[in-house]
Design brief:
Residues 1-24 form the signal peptide. InterPro entries: CARBOXYPEPT_ZN_1, M14A-like_propep, M14A_act_pep, Peptidase_M14. Residues 124-418 form the Peptidase M14 domain. Keywords: Carboxypeptidase, Disulfide bond, Hydrolase, Metal-binding, Metalloprotease, Protease, Signal, Zinc. The protein contains 14 helices and 12 strands. It has helices spanning 2-15, 43-53, 81-90, 115-118, 128-141, 188-202, 204-208, 224-231, 288-299, 332-348, 359-362, 369-375, 400-422, 425-431, and strands spanning 34-39, 60-63, 72-76, 94-98, 146-153, 159-165, 175-180, 215-219, 304-311, 316-319, 355-358, 381-386. The strands form 2 sheets. It has an 8-stranded mixed sheet with strand order 5-6-8-7-9-12-10-11, with helices on both faces. Strands 2-3-1-4 form a 4-stranded antiparallel sheet, with helices on one face. β10, α10 (332-348) and β11 (355-358) form a beta-alpha-beta unit. The protein starts with a helix and ends with a helix.
C-alpha cells in the first residue's frame, strides 16, 4: 500500500494545479484531454481513490466510485496521460479511455436564436435569458395554470422566478417542488425541468393525472450565474459552483449543494475557497441562490410533500441522509419504495433504471438540499435525481428528444404517490 500511495503522490506532483479556471488556458483547453475511467476491484484501491479525490485540485475528478466496478472518472491533459496510465497499471486498476474528450462539448450559440421564426425548441439547451423568456411566455399564454413568483436575484443580479403550476391554487393541494441546475455544468437538469413544465401545461393528460389534486413548483435554474459561465467557453464548460467572490480569498464560487444549513460541513466538503468542487462556503446559506430555495421550502413547509433536486450524471435516485452513511432515517423504507416505483416507471418507458440508495451510502456529503428539505423543512419525500449515464456532464442535445419523455414517466409515478397519500379523499376517488 505504501508504494501505491507514494506512486500516486508522485503523479500528483507532476500533474500540478491545472484545474483552476482563469489561469490563461486557451479556449480549446479540453479538446485533447482524455477522460480516464478507473474501476476499483479491491479494497486497497479505494484508499488510492480517496487520496485522488482530496488531492487539493491536482486533478479534475468528474465522478467518484460508489462501489466495486463503479468508475472514478478523471480528466487528464495530454502531457500527463502516460504517467496516469502507468499509475493505473501499477496499482492493478481496470480502466478505459475516451480520447479528445473536450471535442464532444456542446458549443452554445452566443447570438440570440431566431425563436420568433422557429419557436422555442424544448429539446435544446438554452441560455438562462431564453429560459426566462420561455417561462414568462408560458405564464402569459396559460394564466389559468401558471403563476410566476420572483424569488430574488442571483449574486450577479439575474432574476430568479419560481414556476407555480396548479389547476386550483386556492385548494391547498400538496406541492411537488422540483429544482435543477445548482451545479452549473449539469445542463441536462435544467432541460428536464423545462420539459416537466412543458408537459404539465401542454399535455391534456397531465390535467387529468399529474395536476389532479397536486400543485407543482419548479425552479429551472438554481445557479444561473454558474450556468451562464459554463456557456461562455469550453474552458469554463465544467465549472460547478456559484460565481460569488470569496470574502477571504481571490477565488470564486461555492458548491451550492454543500451550502444548506442542515448538518452543514460535517462530512464530504472542502473548507478551501479555491477548491473547484466541494467548497461549502464560509457559512451555511452564504449564497443568495440557496437562500431562495430554503425560503421556498420553509414558506410552504406545510404543503410540500415531495422535493426533487435534478442533477447529472450517473442515473442515481438517492434519498436522505446524505451527510452520513452510518444510519438511515426511520422512514427510509417509504423513501426507498417510492424511488423504486419511479425507476420502474422510467424503465418501462424504455429508459435506464435508477440506482436507488441513501445519498450517504452513495458517498457522505453534508449540506445538501435534500437533507435540508427532509430534516429541516420536514418534507416527507426528498430526493436527489442524477439524470443520465454514459455521457458525463456533456449529455448530447440530440438525445434529449428520446430521453426526457422517458424521465417524465418517473414524475408521473411521483405525482400518483403524492396524490394518493396526501390529497383529500374526494380527489383520490375521482382520480381513480
Amino acid at each position: 500500500m505504501a508504494n501505491k500511495i507514494n506512486s500516486l503522490i508522485f503523479v500528483w506532483g507532476i500533474i500540478g494545479l491545472w484545474t483552476q479556471v482563469g489561469c490563461g488556458e486557451s479556449n480549446d483547453k479540453y479538446d485533447n484531454y482524455t477522460l480516464f475511467r478507473i474501476y476499483p476491484t479491491e479494497e486497497s484501491q479505494f484508499e488510492i481513490i480517496k487520496l485522488l479525490q482530496t488531492s487539493n485540485n491536482s486533478i479534475e475528478v468528474l465522478k467518484k466510485s460508489r462501489g466495486y466496478n463503479d468508475s472514478t472518472d478523471v480528466l487528464v491533459p495530454p502531457d500527463r496521460l502516460q504517467s496516469f496510465e502507468e499509475l493505473a497499471k501499477e496499482n492493478n486498476f481496470n480502466y478505459d479511455l475516451k480520447n479528445q474528450y473536450g471535442r464532444s462539448f456542446e458549443s452554445p450559440e452566443r447570438a440570440p436564436r431566431r425563436r420568433v421564426l422557429r419557436g422555442f425548441n424544448i429539446y435544446e439547451y438554452h441560455s438562462f435569458a431564453a429560459i426566462q423568456e420561455y417561462i414568462e411566455t408560458m405564464a402569459s399564454k396559460h394564466p389559468e395554470l401558471i403563476k410566476l413568483q420572483t424569488l430574488g436575484s442571483s449574486y450577479q443580479g439575474r432574476k430568479m422566478k419560481l414556476v407555480k403550476i396548479s389547476q386550483n391554487p386556492h385548494a391547498g393541494n400538496p406541492i411537488i417542488f422540483v429544482d435543477a441546475g445548482i451545479h452549473a455544468r449539469e445542463w441536462v437538469a435544467p432541460a428536464m425541468a423545462l420539459y416537466l413544465i412543458h408537459r404539465l401545461v401542454m399535455d391534456p393528460e397531465a390535467r387529468k393525472r399529474e395536476l389532479r389534486g397536486v400543485d407543482w413548483y419548479v425552479l429551472p435554474v438554481v445557479n444561473p450565474d454558474g450556468y451562464e459561465f459554463t456557456r461562455s467557453s469550453k474552458t469554463n464548460r465544467l465549472w460547478r459552483k456559484t460565481r460569488s467572490k470569496s470574502p477571504v480569498s481571490n477565488c470564486y464560487g461555492v458548491d451550492g449543494n454543500r451550502n444548506y444549513g442542515y448538518q452543514w460541513a460535517v462530512s464530504g466538503v472542502s473548507k478551501n475557497p479555491c477548491d473547484m468542487e466541494t467548497y461549502a462556503g464560509h457559512k451555511p446559506f452564504s449564497e443568495p441562490e440557496t437562500q431562495m430555495v430554503r425560503d421556498v421550502m420553509l414558506s410552504n413547509a406545510d404543503r410540500i410533500k415531495l422535493y426533487v433536486s435534478l442533477h447529472a450524471y450517473g442515473q442515481y435516485l438517492v434519498y436522505p441522509w446524505g451527510y452520513t452513511a452510518e444510519f438511515l432515517p426511520k422512514q427510509w423504507r417509504k423513501l426507498d419504495s417510492l424511488a423504486r416505483k419511479v425507476s420502474q416507471a422510467v424503465q418501462s418507458a424504455g429508459g435506464q433504471p435508477f440506482k436507488v440508495m441513501s445519498a450517504g451510502q452513495w458517498y457522505p456529503a453534508a449540506g445538501g438540499s435534500d437533507d435540508f428539505a427532509f430534516g429541516a423543512a420536514h418534507v416527507p419525500y426528498s430526493y436527489t435525481m442524477e439524470l443520465t449515464d454514459g455521457y458525463e456532464f456533456v449529455f448530447p442535445e440530440s438525445r434529449l428528444r428520446s430521453t426526457l419523455p422517458q424521465l417524465y414517466e418517473g414524475f408521473r409515478a411521483f405525482a400518483s404517490e403524492i396524490r394518493n397519500e396526501f390529497s383529500n379523499k374526494r380527489l383520490r376517488d375521482h382520480a381513480s
